[in-house]
Amino acid sequence: MTPAAPGIVHLTERQPQLSGEEMLASLVPPPQFDDATFESYRADPEFPSQEEAKELLTTFAVGAPPAKRGGFFSRRPKTPELKPGVYLDGGFGVGKTHLLAAIFHAMPARRKYFGSFIEYTALVGALGYRQTVDLLRGSALLCIDEFELDDPGDTMVMTRLLGELVASGTRLAATSNTPPNALGEGRFAAQDFLREIHAMADSFQTIRIDGVDFRQRSFDGHAPSLDATEYEAALAGFGTASDDGFDALISHLARVHPSRYIRLIDGVDAIGLRDVRQLTDQSEALRFVAFVDRVYDAELPIRATGLPLDQVFGDDMLAGGYRKKYLRAISRLVASAYA
């Protein structure tokens, strides 16, 4: 490989490592949600479920608001009794992660954690199940973003983990594009694990959030594809940019655990991808989704040549069990391409 130009790095040359202790310390909201609050959540008046969700989640995080002054016989309005967990079910781009981070920031607790589903399963993989339970037990809140059950192993591990934590008093807040009883549907033999899935769902009150993808409101829905000259000029405009062939990066992602993707992009101001093509392998596509999630969380622009990034997942994939994951990734790719 030719040496990188000044300000250019190759992600394919990086072999990031992350200890279990570092994983635990990193379980906080992504930088873009450092200041997320219920007050800064802009509910769309066209979709009343957004304001309703905000009010319910405020109660979940900090308790019911004080009763309004009234006459002698006035009563405090009844507040729905929430389960140990709340589960935000809705399409991508309706502000679920913002609300999840708002819960994290608003809940007055010393020990609380925020991470993606894959980060929690990776923590179990790095530390072992029992040590992970011991470390998380006693925490007031566990926030789980992008809750998905893509294989039976994850189903069993997360069911046991969350069950033990809820029994010890931990409260849960999760987001997903799939209702809890439908997790795993279309991905593996979910009927073989219905008991575990239903047991997990019993810990959550589902809160539906409708709306339009806010990331698409400013764009035409398509990511630009640059020619070679435009691409090089674009990368030169950033302090430090990565520059990798798309195929080379996809192959490299198979050799790096998804929990380490965030470390893969450390110190980078923008992501460059050459010769983007359509993905036809499901495993490759899912790894790319996990990579896109970390890039989006880090608020990094993406510049690319080849196929427009919104066309990277084929029609067959968009019609399958991972449809919502791919659509979310497309939404994030388009936003990153214009960032």
Automatic annotation (TrEMBL):
GO biological process, one term: cell division
GO cellular component terms listed in the entry, alphabetical order: cytoplasm
InterPro entries attached to this UniProt entry: ATPase_AFG1-like, P-loop_NTPase
Gene Ontology MF: a single term: ATP hydrolysis activity
Keyword tags: ATP-binding, Cell cycle, Cell division, Nucleotide-binding
Domain of life where this protein originates: Bacteria
The keyword Aminoacyl-tRNA synthetase is annotated on this UniProt entry: no
One Pfam family matching this protein: AFG1_ATPase
The UniProt record lists the keyword Acyltransferase: no
Protein name, entry field: Cell division protein ZapE
Species the sequence originates in: Microbacterium paludicola
